[in-house]
Amino acid sequence: MSALQPLVGNPFDAKCMSTAIQTACPALPEASRISLVEYLLEDWRVHGRNLLSRGLWVLAVHRFGCWRYGIRWRPARWPFSALYKLLFLMVQILTNVEFPCEARVGRRLRIEHVGDIVISGDASFGDDVILRNGTTIGLKTTNRRGSPQLGNRVDIGAGAKLLGPIIIGDDAVIGANAVVLRDVPAGHLAVGVPARILRRQRETIVTEGESK
């Protein structure tokens, strides 16, 4: 994580929230222009405007945990950190999702189904990623650092395991229950155990879908 900068002004002001997000989660070049409230509203829309969506709960706690790092003065940050830890535990119990705020998350991440999801703190997600139940994104071995870095519009099937310091390119699709241990180029499909990398035939996929 990058060095923290002091948060100046009212911490609930949109501009200050943006500064905090940029400080703690620098993955997005746009982050400095987006407030915490705007992130939460966008996540709410992505999850069908459904406040009961447990995927939305997970993301809301993640965004809040990321934001509170922008408060550099520890005595002021402590109540927010305590609240984050409580919310993180509650969401973990209610959803069976472990998604620490240290993981870098882009915009419009959609968690379609919760349950048995484990995300490492050094993983990163681009924009418009789809995440499903049973997914693990993290370390390959305990003695080797490095977790997957996902591009934009990556679609992850249920039960998929993405392990190690690998890069998943834009528009890649990870098949259900695939175990991915190597890079997946942009626009490709990973299926099987261990995963095989296939070139996506977009026209064929559309035709097969329409023929059902």
> Helix fraction?
25-40%
- Biggest sheet: strands side by side, in what order? 1-3-5-8-11
> Into which percentage range does the β-strand content fall?
15-25%
Order of helices and strands: HHHHEEEEEEEEEEEEEH
- Oligomeric description of these chains: single chain
Number of strands: 13
Outline the biggest β-sheet. 5 strands, parallel
Q: How many helices in DSSP terms?
A: 5
**Structural class by secondary-structure content:** alpha/beta
Q: Globular, elongated, flat, extended or rod-shaped: what is the shape? A: globular
Secondary structure elements and pairings:
Blueprint: H1 14-24, H2 36-46, H3 54-68, H4 74-95, E1 97-98, E2 110-111, E3 117-119, E4 130-131, E5 136-138, E6 149-150, E7 155-156, E8 161-163, E9 167-168, E10 173-174, E11 179-180, E12 188-191, E13 196-199, H5 202-211
Parallel strand pairs: 1-3, 2-4, 3-5, 5-8, 6-9, 7-10, 8-11, 10-12
Antiparallel strand pairs: 12-13
Search tags:
212 residues; 2 domains; UDP N-Acetylglucosamine Acyltransferase, domain 1; alpha/beta; 4-stranded mixed beta sheet; single chain; globular
What do these coordinates show?
The protein folds into two domains: 1-97, no CATH class; 116-212, 3 Solenoid (UDP N-Acetylglucosamine Acyltransferase, domain 1). The protein is 33% helix and 16% strand. It contains five helices and 13 strands. It has a five-stranded parallel β-sheet. A four-stranded mixed β-sheet has the order 7-10-12-13, with no helix packed on it. Helix 1 (14-24) packs across helix 3, helix 2 (36-46) packs antiparallel against helix 3 (54-68) and helix 3 packs antiparallel against helix 4 (74-95). It starts with 13 loop residues before the first helix and ends with a helix. Mean pLDDT is 84; it is low at 1-24, 26-32 and 203-212.
